[in-house]
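queue> pop job 88
queue> type: inverse folding (structure -> sequence)
queue> payload:
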């Protein structure tokens, strides 16, 4: 969407007019007006400003590349999942072999960023689904987790977004995801409790039934023997 005036004018006009529902990442309508390169330039200036305000000497050899490094990392890496174009293409196949039990992809490594403090969230996601006719490539589940994790996030929303996307891809409600993750904003600052972790879950369709849910949880807790 292109409009007249400066980007600042445009932000001003938009005010709090977000396009998101509660399960969606709260993005502004103009989120993708700027190219990645333009975003990196702007963020670079902001990071420089923060470091200067803190009193850091940006002429120092070790620090002079930091604004650019952080800006690139934000746009291309840790927040690289904000752009819908980055959504992985999840190839599905017909369930020709008529596999009728649940499939569990467990211990998926998850790196995200807490949107309240911009500190890391590090953990594991466990996904299960029961095929309604389609099966999805195993790695696509890891890729979906990674895509939604590369955003400023809260764990609850991340968990729901993963389940909704898989339900869409597979054409079935019968999808579940459990996430167990450490939030560095709890572990390394504030209350500084290094031991605690946060567990969230989203159960769709048949996973709302106790027996089905328990089977999934048993697989997650099963020791992997290799
Ligand atoms: N529900 C939820 N809360 C989160 C998540 N990540 C971080 N938080 C919490 O967001 C809250 C923000 O609370 P504030 O009181 O505004 O922030 P704060 O003063 O830095 O709070 P403390 O961390 O208690 O020092 C904190 O309690 C965080 O632990 C998340 O994924 N889900
Ligand atoms: Zn936080």
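queue> result:
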């Amino acid at each position: 969407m292109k409009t007249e005036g400066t980007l600042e004018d445009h932000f001003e006009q938009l005010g709090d007019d977000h396009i998101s529902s509660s399960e969606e990442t709260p993005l502004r309508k103009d989120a993708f007006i700027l190219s990645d390169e333009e975003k990196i330039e702007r963020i670079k200036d902001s990071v420089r400003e923060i470091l200067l305000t803190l009193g850091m000497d940006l002429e120092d050899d070790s620090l002079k590349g930091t604004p650019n490094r952080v800006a690139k990392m934000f746009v291309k890496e840790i927040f690289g999942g904000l752009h819908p174009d980055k959504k992985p293409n999840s190839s599905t196949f017909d369930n020709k072999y008529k596999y009728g039990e649940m499939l569990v992809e467990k211990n998926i490594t998850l790196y995200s960023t807490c949107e309240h403090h911009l500190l890391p969230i590090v953990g594991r996601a466990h996904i299960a689904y029961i095929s309604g006719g389609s099966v999805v490539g195993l790695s696509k589940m890891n890729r979906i987790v990674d895509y939604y994790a590369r955003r400023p996030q809260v764990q609850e929303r991340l968990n729901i977004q993963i389940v909704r996307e898989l339900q869409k891809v597979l054409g079935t409600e019968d999808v579940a995801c459990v996430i167990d993750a450490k939030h560095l904003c709890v572990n390394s600052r504030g209350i500084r409790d290094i031991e605690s972790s946060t567990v969230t879950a989203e159960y769709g369709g048949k996973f709302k039934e106790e027996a089905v849910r328990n089977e999934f949880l048993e697989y997650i807790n099963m020791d992997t023997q290799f």
